[in-house]
Amino acid sequence: MSKKTLKFPTGFFWGTATSAHQVEGGNVNEWSEWEKKNAKQWTKKARRHWKKWQQEKFPEMFQPANYISGQACDHYHLFEKDFDLAKYLGHKAYRFSIEWSRIEPKEGKIDQKEIEHYRQVLLALKERGLEPFVSLYHWTVPIWFSQKGGWLNPKAPYYFDRFVKIVSQNLFGQVNFWITLNEAMLCAGASYLRGTFPPQKRNVFKFLKAVNNLAKAHQLAYRSLHLIDLDCQVGIAKHNIYFKNIPLAEYFWNNRFLNKIKKEQDFIGLNYYKHHQFPKKKNLPVSDLDWEIYPKGIYYVLKDLKKYNKPIYITENGLADAQDAKRAKFIKDHLYWIHKAIKEDVDVRGYFHWSLLDNFEWDKGFWPRFGLIEVDYQTLKRIPRPSAYQYAKICRENALKL
Ligand code: BGC
Predict the structure, then answer these.
(1) Separation of 2 CA from ligand 1 center, angstroms?
(2) Band of the pLDDT at 3, cuts 50, 70, 90?
(3) pTM
């Protein structure tokens, strides 16, 4: 790489992403109930699952409290302070999710005070000049919905659509960008194929059924959102992996879902974390989760998405790195390849780093640290990591200096 400045397009959205259950605290949903049941047993699983260096570095994985979201980052109460930090760090946009179980804790009963909460969240973003990108499903569902069979229930898309309509009617005019579903394939796969997420099933037919219902849920929500607000932009956040020389996996994992909803998306949200290459690449650096870091993969994935001819936002990209030893380079290297894709006419319009804050990493709990900002879970103190300032410079200059 030569010494130069890579300029990003004017109006590029620089930001970060979070999701309700991972940061808010105090949620009561299918996941919160499941965590409580499993916490103890996961401390035992940790011994088998993680490598020695990870076990030594993160002994909290052996404590049940690690696996219970509890008050998380208390972002539910501290959101204004968190947005002050995001603004101070030069961000221009923020992606977050609205928690269905707060809005509709019992079927058909809408909690107006929670709607008001999210109205305040949106106002706070506006006051700070942060453009909201709002996700409507980021893996957590109300308990009543899961009791009805969750995404396997043929009526599931209609239940979701009913929730979406309520949210969009009530928040009319406050949101320009909606993300209906976050990583539908990944979540359905973990729930119904790998059996690692609730309801922990392993059945390919159930997996396919859930995926079909999720696609239908998106299609209904797409129409409803546009009926309520003609001008809004609607898409999904899709977890695409760079597969080298594995075309079937590429089709099945990366393209199949996008093909299903081809006619119902105004943009594509890309979450990029992983690559699978055959033959395997050797000696790549890894994150605290032992995920290999392969920035060039984002370039290939973006080039593939070009065929859909839609604007693209990188809705997630990040790594678990408690020491913050690799994050700044990780960001710069990925941005280098994103910029190259833009130069080659891929219409990328924003980058959301995962994540603003350390947060609750699902079945792994709190030990993986994804935040630009460190969170002390005892005191709830926020401390920006050095990489947060490096990212801030890029956001403010709308450019990457090599
Ligand atoms: C999810 C996030 C998660 C991140 C890191 C993404 O697949 O959308 O919720 O925290 O990956 O694992």
Answers:
(1) 33
(2) confident
(3) 0.98
